[in-house]
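REQUEST
  id: r-88c1
  op: predict_structure
  target: Peptide methionine sulfoxide reductase MsrB
  payload:
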Amino acid sequence: MSAFDLTPPDPAERQALVAPLTGEERRVLLEHGTEAAFCGVFLDNKLEGVYTCRLCGLPLFRSSAKFDSGTGWPSFFQPYDQAHVRTIRDTSYGMIRTEIVCARCDSHLGHVFPDGPPPTGERHCLNSLSLAFTEQGAAFPDPLRRGGAEGIAAD
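RESPONSE
  id: r-88c1
  status: 200
  body:
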């Protein structure tokens, strides 16, 4: 069970979260788009900390689970907490894939594939536009003003 409040934002909270998004952020986060390979801001990030949902601030992946997959998108072998991501069967573009979304706000994150490294064998392939980054020791973003576990990032 997560120490974070996973209650979805109500309509007014969601509107406040969505309002400042750019067109490209909206396309990726809300319309299940994909950013171009090898150009995301977090692809080569080597800092220690936690990647959070760009929209609601929920911790999604630790930097210690990040690896270079060679695919052009930030990749991780396991989530911060399995309860923080939700999977959806994606049959778009004539493929069968597993989409991953934020369990709290349903923002599109990317896809998970069964070709990652040990110990999980998973490759969570994410859009940088779907993420924010909190350096180790800094406070997590709390755009929903829920407090609680939304405290300090530790990796």
